[in-house]
Design brief:
By secondary structure, the protein is of the alpha+beta class. The protein has three helices and ten strands; from the N terminus they run αββααββββββββ.
């Protein structure tokens, strides 16, 4: 009887640990657009495994070349009507998360509008992109997903 109870306990414990992994499957990537001194930075956090599953990934780690190609393919950025291309400065991966720091623009203290199109990982089921804007002393955040791929924010 003791062996049966221990076996049942182990089975439930293993099953619960598998379920906890499933909860992480509802994935999101965060895109933080932040004014830092005289520049506008873009900080991106995402699940490394989702990137490595992409056709664009040619390595077993997130490389700058592969990431830049995918970021430019799946996102577009405009401030005050000017199209911007993020410049990747640093990529760090720890366990199953990757953080990328980009220079988005030289700060324009008079940001009147920002337009973002984001299809990053939208091929992953249930994936959302969280866009957090910390600009003009105002914080706003948005959820982009399969049904909403673009935002336009007016600061006037």
């Amino acid at each position: 009887m003791k062996i049966l109870i221990i076996s049942l306990f182990l089975f439930l414990n293993i099953n619960n640990s598998k379920n906890s992994v499933d909860f992480h499957d509802a994935i999101s990537a965060t895109f933080n657009v932040i004014e830092r001194g005289h520049v506008v930075m873009l900080e991106i956090d995402f699940d490394t495994f989702n990137f490595l599953k992409l056709e664009e990934a040619k390595s077993i780690k997130v490389t700058k070349e592969d990431f830049v190609k995918y970021l430019n393919k799946t996102t577009s950025w405009e401030i005050n009507g000017e199209k911007l291309i993020p410049e990747v400065l640093k990529i760090t991966s720890k366990e199953h998360h990757t953080k990328v720091i980009c220079l988005l623009a030289k700060s324009n203290k008079n940001i009147k509008s920002i337009k973002i199109k984001n299809e990053f990982f939208l091929n992953v089921e249930t994936h959302s992109n969280i866009i957090a804007l910390d600009l003009n002393d105002t914080f706003k955040d948005f959820r982009l997903y399969e049904g909403r791929r673009e935002i336009e924010v007016d600061y006037n």
